[in-house]
Amino acid sequence: MSITENIKTILATLPEHVTLVAVSKTKPVSDLKEAYDAGQRVFGENRIQEMTEKWEILPKDIEWHMIGHVQRNKVKYMAEYVALVHGVDSLKLLKEINKQGKKYNRKIPCLLQVHIAEEDTKFGFDEKELKELVDNSEFLGLTNVTIKGLMGMATLTDDMKQVRREFKSLKTLFESLKSNFKNLEILSMGMSGDYQVAIEEGSTMVRIGSSIFGARK
Predict the structure, then answer these.
(1) pLDDT (0 to 100) of residue 122
(2) Crossing angle of helices 29-37 and 48-57, rounded to 10°
(3) What is the pLDDT of residue 120?
């Protein structure tokens, strides 16, 4: 199947309220161009330099999502154009995004990453840290970031009951935080292997790479 056919097949299975982020990290510009020509406008990258190079070359109506772990010293390279930062996992990072947003007179949209998986390798806030963040005066004073929602990655396992449980917990947390954030609308959970379960549990944004572009080399 071609990239075009893959995108059409996936879009046909997604409910209207779910946004498809095509995970294009490590893929050549020609692949992104094919996806763009098939109508895809939202791309996810995990390295800021690579994303910036692609942003400079490709059409300007693309929404670029930073989906990987963000190093604070690299925020300045994407602050001008990034449409959504998925993996915000600390107040320090939020403060840096806020500082760089000020330079471009932008409110940079962000998702707070929540640690829902059983693996220790995943980044993110736990529930207690999120509750503390919401009441933190420094956080409340950040004027150049907008918290648009939450993001979480389930444990990498074949046990879909466990995956479903983790997604369910994130959805519950999402609902409980709505009173704190007026712009909370995105629940980003689900990737190539588990996005159908994620959608059933309330996801509004899925990140799909290998099912569109083929396995990474």
Answers:
(1) 66
(2) 60
(3) 72
Q: Find the distance separating the first CA and the last CA of the chain, reported in whole Å.
A: 17
Q: Could you give the angle at the alpha carbon of 141 between the alpha carbons of 134 and 103, nearest 5°? A: 125
206-215: pLDDT as tens digits: 999 999 998 7
User: Does residue 77 belong to any structural domain of this protein?
Assistant: yes
Is residue 217 situated within a structural domain? no
Compute the distance between CA of residue 85 and CA of residue 82 in angstroms, rounded to an integer. Answer: 7
Asked if residue 139 lies in contact with residue 94, where contact means CB atoms within 8 angstroms, the answer is: yes
Task: Dump pLDDT digits (tens) for 141-156.
Answer: 999 999 999 999 999 9
Residue 125 sits in a domain of what CATH number?
3.20.20.10
Domain around 144: 3-212
Q: How far apart are CA 27 and CA 55, in angstroms?
A: 13
What domain count does the chain have? 1
Mean pLDDT per 10-residue section of the chain, whose length is 217 residues: 94 96 96 97 97 98 96 96 96 97 98 88 85 92 96 92 96 93 93 95 97 81
Residue listed under structure tokens 């962000």: 110
